[in-house]
Amino acid sequence: MAIIFVVLCGFSFYMGIIFCSEKDRFESIYNQKSIEYLKESSIGAPKESSISSLQLKYTSFPECNIEYQDYTPCTDPRRWRKYGSHRLILLERHCPPKFERKECLVPPPDGYKPPIKWPKSRDQCWYRNVPYDWINKQKSNQHWLKKQGEKFIFPGGGTMFPNGVGKYVDLMQDLIPEMKDGTIRTAIDTGCGVASWGGDLLDRGILTLSLAPRDNHEAQVQFALERGIPAILGVISTQRLPFPSNSFDMAHCSRCLIPWTEYGGVYLLEIHRILRPGGFWVLSGPPINYKQRWRGWNTTIEAQKSDYEKLQKLLTSLCFKMYKKNGDIAVWQKSPDNNCYNKLARDTYPPKCDDSLEPDSAWYTPIRACIVVPDPKFKKSSLSSIPKWPERLHVTPGRISIFHRGSDSAFKHDDSKWKKQAAYYKRLIPDLGTDKIRNVMDMNTVYGGFAAALINDPVWVMNVVSSYALNSLPVIFDRGLIGTLHDWCEAFSTYPRTYDLLHLDGLFTAESHRCEMKYVLLEMDRILRPWGYAIIRESSYFTDAITTIGKGMRWECRKEDTEYGSNMEKILICQKKLWYSSNQGSR
């Protein structure tokens, strides 16, 4: 028995080595993208050379029923009854199984118009594009928005800043001077309302990702994106947010009503995980300034005092220190190094996470009640060590070493390559770089090179990294850009008609073995605005099939050569048409 046990252990160890090496090889292949090989091998190849292409039969996709005009497949209120309300689990991602997927085109609302151009869109949008009155009626005294004729106007108010977000942020900058000198570049706003805080910070050089669930507030994230402000659907509940550890320079909650100290403090532990060492957490609203405010919160001063003491105790246990406080705003700073974590006793709560939990794992990863301690190898990723904006955009991040073959030269090459490709795209789409394109998504980026190349244009870019690839999001956040993990076999966490431009580079080459092309393209159609563009850079094997599906979705596509003039790879420039529901859809 002992001999058999030893043999089995040895065999398991051997198989584990093989599995891990194969996994590394697969991830390396994915991130280098087989399409890169096609580019290089095709340079100098004869023009007559060609490759076979995938052919599909033309299918015209029907319209969805008009009631699906705001359809969000993975956060669909129609499916909430299947999930419990405990910890708001029903607001998390719950994607429909394949047999329940919609194979139809999501219609725009009646009277939909092309969105108002940036920067005017920050202050107004067409009512018919986001025809929801709940916030207007319930929050009218707080000046979130107001309806004027055919438009919603955004005065810049909020629950904690009814007199205007500008004065609120001015006070915050007085408390945090790092907001003024380029030290703070990326922020996350949890429970963002209509994203007025994030919108104001854009003028101050801070790129904020506004986060809110689809709930009774009706379309918070849709309002944000209609305004041209970065936002994504999400909720802190039982699963980690889709961001790596040590990502954001600052996190903000303005009366977001998240119960920070409940359930073992897991919600605050998640903020701690995604906040960069030395980063700031800003809280306004209960229980801050409870001595002055408690009467308006339908509570007692004793209860608010207890909540504040619990919060302060939890933050101290997570190695946060009170930075500054003034009136309704309190600011804490995460420990800039590991000295505090090294002093934590083994029996303290929350405990430090063990090595079995990958800090950057963030796609359907359960939140655990433990402290994710920053890796001491990446000391230069702390807020005090990382270069200030805009210098950090083109400085090779230290965390690039997590990649197979990741190096300074590879990063510089990628940066240079995307400058050329972005310039070429602008020749293909003259609207790119003008006020006609604001919300951009790079659907399968690696280092965020496309976003970096557009940094001086009036756009913001959502950088998406495949959950099945090596997680390059730490590099993207270290550059001062924003992004998220996602699996394109599922629907993205956004409302319909929220992006002006979608870009993909070899996505089907990398993912067609997992994700059915038809569903990926239908999802692209859902989130793309009418008259919006899709730049599809793909192997010639896929381009004809994509064109056929695009025609069935009422897209107009044209095929273009790449910068290299290769037959192995082509660029499809597709544009979505504006159409209105015929009220005959039944899907």
Automatic annotation (TrEMBL):
The keyword Transmembrane helix applies. It comes from Psophocarpus tetragonolobus (Winged bean). Keywords: Glycoprotein, Membrane, Methyltransferase, Signal-anchor, Transferase, Transmembrane, Transmembrane helix. Belongs to the methyltransferase superfamily. InterPro entries: Put_SAM_MeTrfase (IPR004159), SAM-dependent_MTases_sf (IPR029063). It is a single-pass type II membrane protein. GO terms for molecular function: methyltransferase activity. One of its GO terms (cellular component) is endosome. Its EC number is 2.1.1.-. GO terms for biological process: methylation. It is found in: Endomembrane system; Membrane. This is Methyltransferase.
